[in-house]
């Protein structure tokens, strides 16, 4: 142990009016405190800082009663420092500096606090690319500040700093603070652009569609942007606008009026009325009408789907586990079917919206029976795991037009390898191609 360490410990004993091995004190409490200090010194010199800390703290009430606890607080902080309890040692040195004591010990305490602070915290300096920005950092103290601002005691970790300008623009910076490192970060704010023009006109910025006017303010990067406004009849106007960080800009755009309609053409002069024809000869007498033949019955054409079509379905179902429990789910399907003689060959992808999410591929053969159909095939689960099952189903496709039909169906799947059976109902649209 260095002489300075021993001297700092003996300073406490001298402050209490003791020296190791001194005579019996004036009363029992003071004698007990002396014994604690001597015990603490022995433990500290032996490197047993935990026991030294315990003994120093037991002597603390007597030091407080004598009105001179500074030396005791210093040595408590030293024990905590040697034990690697940096945060507690820093706080103990801070408490020591609140009391008067010898200048050399106070300077030593300040140096130790600085070294502990470098092990405990980093520093974070934040600046902004716009004026008047208010910073927000919920994980830091203070949680809000004007930009620029420097946080001096920042625990190591990841932080998000948000900056808001007076005009309402918001920017963010994400930083990782390390102990003993002074870090600098910049919050870059976008600009806000409001475009005023004819309602319903379509707006694009830098060739990216933004929608029809009116629109809320757009967040754009700082710099020049090309703004184009297009009317429903194809008329356009284009302007370039400069966007500044954190600032709100309003751009008013007008479209050229549409061209005037040409005047209607003059009608051609009227033709003179034709001459009256001579009176016609009376027609010969009509023969008696023949008996009408029985009219052939013509059936109205029924809309139907061609053999090639797309099925888009949505529905719900349930999976039964060993016949004792079940789990419900929502299913979404997309399928293709092609004619192959009197049958159809199809494949379908189905998503089961449950936890976890499941995806299945279903190759099948379909037998059309008028508007009804029967289907049989395989059910191959690919997500979250690979399971193979047998599929049987039936349904109808009710024609709505020559290209569109209503799809209704019920399917059942047996998963032999998983001891699970599944029944699903679906409805959707079939589109001819």
Question: How does this model look, in words?
Answer:
By secondary structure, the chain is α+β, with helices and mostly antiparallel strands. It has four domains: 3-118, Tetratricopeptide repeat domain (Serine Threonine Protein Phosphatase 5, Tetratricopeptide repeat, Alpha Horseshoe); 122-187, Sandwich (Immunoglobulin-like); 193-252, no CATH class; 309-432, Porin (Beta Barrel), CATH 2.40.160. Helices cover 21% and strands 42% of the residues. The chain is built from six helices and 22 strands. The strands form five sheets. It has an eight-stranded antiparallel barrel with strand order 15-16-17-18-19-20-21-22. β16 and β17 (343-353) form a beta hairpin. α4 (70-82) packs antiparallel against α5 (86-97) and α5 packs antiparallel against α6 (103-120). The longest helix is centred in the first third of the chain and has 18 residues, at 28-45. The protein is elongated and about 160 Å long.
Write the layout of secondary structure elements.
Layout (H helix, E strand, L loop, with lengths): L2 H13 L12 H18 L3 H18 L3 H13 L3 H12 L5 H18 L1 E7 L5 E3 L7 E3 L2 E6 L2 E8 L5 E8 L4 E6 L3 E6 L5 E4 L2 E5 L5 E3 L2 E8 L5 E8 L4 E5 L56 E13 L3 E16 L2 E11 L4 E12 L2 E12 L3 E13 L4 E12 L4 E13 L1
Parallel strand pairs: 1-7, 8-14
Antiparallel strand pairs: 1-4, 2-3, 2-5, 5-6, 8-11, 9-10, 9-12, 12-13, 15-16, 15-22, 16-17, 17-18, 18-19, 19-20, 20-21, 21-22
Helix pairs in contact: 1-2, 1-4, 2-3, 3-4, 4-5, 5-6
